[in-house]
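User: Please predict the structure of the protein below. I'd like the answer in structure-token form so I can feed it into my own downstream comparison script.

Assistant: Understood. Taking the following sequence of 669 residues as input:
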Amino acid sequence: MRTAYLRHVSGAALLALGCLGTVEARAEAVTVTSPDGRNTVEVETGPDGASYAVLRDGKPVIASSPLGLNSTRGTLGGAGAAMLAHKERSVRQQIELVAGKAGTVAERYNESAISLRQPGSGAIDFSLIVRAYNDGVAFRYVVPGQDGLQRLDLAGEQTRFDFPRDYDCWGFNPGRYDSGHEGEFDPVKASLIRPAHLFDAPLVCKTGEGPTTFALAQADMRDYAGAYFSGRGDGGLGVTINLAPRPDNDETTYLAVKADLARGPLVTPWRVVMLGDSPAALVQSTLIAQLASPSVIGDTSWIKPGKAQWDWWNGWAVNIPGAGINTATYKAYIDNAAAMKLQYVLIDEGWYEGSSEGPGPADVTQTVAAIDMPEIVRYAAERGIGVMVWLQWKQLDRQMDQALALYEKWGIKGIKVDFMSRNDQEMVAYYHTLLAKAAQHHLLVDLHAAYPPDGLSRTYPNYLTQEGVMGAEYNKWSSRITARHNVTLPFTRMLLGPMDYTPGGFRHLSPEEFARQRRFIAPFVQTTRGQALAMYVVFDSPLQMVADSPGAYRNADGSWADGAEFIGAVPTIWDETRVLAGDIGEYIVTARRKGRTWFLGAMTNENGRTVSIPLDFLGEGGFSTRLWQDGADMSHLRSSTLKSHASTKLVLQLAPSGGAVAVLSPAGG
């Protein structure tokens, strides 16, 4: 894996590595500025070691903060670290994304590859690669093999993000290394972040300098441990990188990363500071994807995003005799998927022998007696529907090569792999192995209980979506999925990449009624039909679930329920995304373009509101606008059709816990 990864290290980084140990010290400070001149990273070395600072418009966002890797050979970047040389380059290019919030991205950044030396009895040379984009900055460490250093083990990093002020932040603190990364992103003052906290990426903060907002994240992780953000041990404002420990540690050993430098350099993930003039600006950024390694899949024509009818959330609540995990039930789901113009059916837990949530004995190549998988796949294919299947990760791992080959032979289109609940170095390696092998068998992938996205879906475009989000399933057993939670997610978790929230709940109750009638089978949601539809526009996921039972999308007379046809029509990948208005935990209005047609989605928290949205993004010409807003009750919509153009303002009436959607099509199109 390390040797292959060397291909993805930037040319400037490799050039810097080539000159290590052969040049004299030429500088003690390097400044890298974004193409628009607004974002600046300042790196310097001094008596205490290497440090950096981040400024936007000349104002500090990240104060001078330590850099470095805490290794078994000492701290690289610590006291005495010397800057040997640096080499600059500028990149201006277009990159294509197979599936996501934009098809083509203009990539623009300035970079410096800085060569450093850590003195000692065995001096160690390494590099710091620094980039400045218009929507953020990033840096990573590269340690090559060298005389006397063919192995390097890390206990952690010295990397910190020191804050010049007591920022207002939003973060999710799972409080442990082994978690499914599912929880609320709560408001937290920077001064209340403690060393014992383990905040997931992203940690989002407002600077107090107008609406300027930033998010701390990581990107392009390979053969490394996942990072959390913990409070500084000295009580100062800011956070430090806290790496997930390896599972093979014992009482005498605490390591996060083991690196065999004989196989290739140690390359850390990018440490990222996303920057924007508002929270909305961060939502439309593609910075994490830009920092990821390019696709390793040559032919991506078989990768087909879409929407999937799903069984588990509604509890196999199909109105047929003997509904459950059997062939007849899945044929009913397939019929509904075809009628709604969906692309897939996802068969969840219970279809294979020994299937369970635990790692116990199971055979992922053998269906239970009630399931005829070849027949299900045949029936689905005749109706233009693909079939995907669920798997427990450890059970799959034991039979991976055999199972993936069998699924391809059956005609399965994708797999949903669950319960990893870790982001240590070994689990990160598992992700890469699984995604690469799945691609070899033309299988799409959806990972659940997954660590936060780091751009991996660009490297493996068959990795269409993932969990690592507190989504709609929590409606089955809790009251935690509130409208406020829903409108917090786009500004926090969704900044990093797609999220399999699993929308589509069509049984609605007010929050007060919901608390009294919560149920596990055919569950309710405590938000409106308008918000249910808006999720398909606002939430990023190239593979979107349609989570309710087939009957929920029909009226008693068999006609389509309000909004069901919109779900069938809305795309899951986009040519362009714009966030038109909103704030963290309050509301959001997102417009996405597919071809010349725009889809608009609006969601609000428990407070109803009227929002006036300028349509100046439409460009020239007239548009026909079909608008759906909340109606007489939580389960119904009122629709209207109007003419729009770039000088029009669209007025949206958002009910409490509600939403709205619109489709703006070119007139005459």
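That's the full token string. The chain has 14 helices and 38 strands.
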